[in-house]
Design goal:
This protein is mainly alpha-helical. The protein folds into two domains: 84 residues, no CATH class; 33 residues, no CATH class. Helix content is 41%, strand content 9%. It has a two-stranded antiparallel sheet. β1 and β2 form a beta hairpin. It is globular and about 60 Å long. The mean pLDDT is 83. One of its GO terms (molecular function) is iron ion binding.
């Protein structure tokens, strides 16, 4: 049987998880960026957990989403981390060319031993190797 103390601790833990989720998943809202509505704990990665789509096909769907057609960038959540999908060509050019040193260490990538071509891709290469 559960005691009152155990129930209280469980309720407090669930309340903390709820508050943490609300704060974490309000990042794009607080920064006034259009975003895809996330699910608690998994963000926008439902397609990966259900194995209905790959991550890159999901990003393509976000890019083509009719509700976001006027947005220069769209916010998503990779589990609990905010990520930005750029849609406007000038913004993409700015990130990949003009401001490249500031954005050089992107998340993602691949294992250099199993995928040397993918790991040396300019989108995923890390400092100082990209220089």
């Amino acid at each position: 049987m559960l005691t009152a103390g155990t129930v209280g601790l469980l309720a407090a833990f669930l309340a903390l998880v709820y508050v943490w989720c609300r704060y974490t998943y309000d990042y794009w809202k607080r920064n006034k960026i259009p975003y895809m509505t996330p699910l608690p704990l998994i963000g926008n990665m439902e397609v990966l957990f259900k194995r209905t789509n790959s991550f890159f096909l999901y990003l393509s769907d976000v890019y083509k989403d009719a509700k976001m057609s006027n947005a220069a960038a769209v916010g998503i959540y990779v589990l609990n981390k905010p990520a930005l999908v750029l849609r406007e060509p000038e913004l993409i050019k700015s990130v990949l060319i003009k401001e490249f040193p500031k954005f050089a260490n992107r998340s993602g990538g691949s294992d250099p031993h199993n995928d040397p071509l993918g790991s040396n891709n300019l989108f995923f290469i890390r400092n100082p190797q990209w220089k």
